[in-house]
Give the backbone structure.
Amino acid sequence: MVTFKDVFRQLIRDVRNEKLRTFLTIFGIVWGTVAISLMLAFGTGLHKNLIKQTAGLGDRIVIAWPGLTSIPYEGLGKGRRLRINEDDIAAVRTQVRGLKAISGEYETNMKLDYAAKTMSVDISGVTAEFGAMRNEIPQSGGRFINELDDHDQRRVMFLGDRLKTNIFGDADPIGKTVLLNQSPFQVIGVLIKKPQDSNYSGPDAEKAFIPSSTFRALNGDKYVDNMIFQAASSGETKQVIKDISAAFGKRLRFDPEDKEALSMWDTTEQFHFFDIFMLAFNGFLGLVGVLTLIVGGIGVSNIMNVVVEERTREIGIKMALGAKSRWILTQFLIETLLVTIFGGAIGFAISLGVCAVFPAQLYEYVGKPEVSPVVALFTALALGIVGLVAGYFPAKEASRLDPVVAMKL
Amino acid sequence: MSIIRMEGIRKIYDTGKVKVEALKGIDLDVDAGELVAIVGPSGSGKSTLMNLIGCLDTPSEGIYEIGGDNVAGVTRDQLAEIRNRRVGFVFQNFNLLPHITIVENVELPMLFGGVAVRERRDRAVELLTRVGLGERLDHKPTELSGGQMQRVAIARALAMNPDIILADEPTGNLDTSSGTDIMSIFTDLWKAGRTLVIITHDPALAKRASRIVEIRDGRITSDQRNEEAA
């Protein structure tokens, strides 16, 4: 019987007798593990960061801009301007199945006064639904525009966080009144700091939002500048886009295939792209890591072969005393596995350490590296396989020795 | 009752180009309780015979039975098991593992034989005490003299309570007085009823055996009872 204690004792002895060799062996495995787990950790962090950045624009939304028709339709020539009003949106909303939310957006630049400050600000007129779709989450103590604000044409305002700082500095703006084109507006909320890597009319952080109805009354606008909508599930997005085009096409008489009349930006496509990109990216990183580990494994295998040679006499004596080849095989296999696991554990600890001390200022760019359980499992599995393969051949060699010949050495 | 029964044993080493016939038909029976010395010059086939008796190798031809077990056609692992249970080795160069204590060395055959941990330890301590090393249990072989190392080897050979003790030039690396000590241990074991086969080219050693088998050029040339034994 090979007991774990016997093997472990042998291992400790080897480590003591062969400090440099053991160090180099374990270093190879440590390096491989660090390579795999760190690279995958950064990959995971980057992926999450990309998703978060994109989520800054909205939660799987589609943005639609009315434009000029480019295809003649039902006797109407091309180059006709498409105009969409709230009635159109209300009508379409009831016609398209799988549509979760839709909101028109009105935009313009207005003069904002507060105390001695005057500045020019991008203002959007939007509904309550817009806030949910675009992830306009308020800081505590405030709120986004709600349905009542829109219904009652209230003069309330939701501020982007950078715009708030520009106007109020560190002071709490909630309940304060600012003048927008000389009309008083009450500040009801401030956007939380959110990462946003793409936008279509300036980052939300530098904008202000007011109720859609208030915007129309104030500026005399009838027609939306763009619309935001969201399907009930991301899988339905493609169909909803088609149905929206068809519904508006029927009502406003343009060809549903006319991409210029109502141009769309499907932000879910980005997520899809990220998923594929990250799969490829992680695959590449994983491959590099696995190759590194294999090279480490070959190193271990080589060293174990040397160990077999050095310990030939010992193996011969043991076999003469009645050790079966299985015993010798197991001993070397367990020894290799222990070295591998030990190296793997150190490598894993180093990876965790690196992730822990990774400067937080860089999270914004490359994300927060995360050693996920999946990464841990994957690394452990790869290590196990490498250990087994690396240990098998030297062990086989050792068990095949002829005791008489081995002892004479 | 014969412990060892050899009939028409031939051993041919085939190196590919040349075939060397090391043993050319050996018939040898060793009964329980004998102290057999196998003598002969270098190259006579002594070592080959010792490897076969010790089940370290299998014969090319002939019948070999040890303690009733037929060695013909067994696998490497089965052979290892026979060695473990039936043969206790004492080698010229001791063949102790240098990095472990002498108790651990004596425990080794019992480890391979599947003896329980506690029993292993107790028996190893008992055997080492019996050969006069009870005070040095935790020493490593390298910290001992040659004679002491050979005594550890004898303790190890007795660990599995084997059918025979097989010693290959046991005094070859020892000074005269240590050699005499070792030989006395052997004769004591013989008197206690053990079966021993000692391979040697030392006439003084051979003289103390109960039977002297002389081997020359792969054949047994003389086989005599020795009435002056011990």
Observations:
- The first helix of chain A runs from residue 4 to 17.
- The mean pLDDT of chain A is 85.
- The interface with chain B takes residues 1, 3, 6, 13, 17, 313-314, 317-327, 403-404, 407 of chain A (CB under 8 Å).
- Chain A has two domains: 4-54+272-408, 61-266.
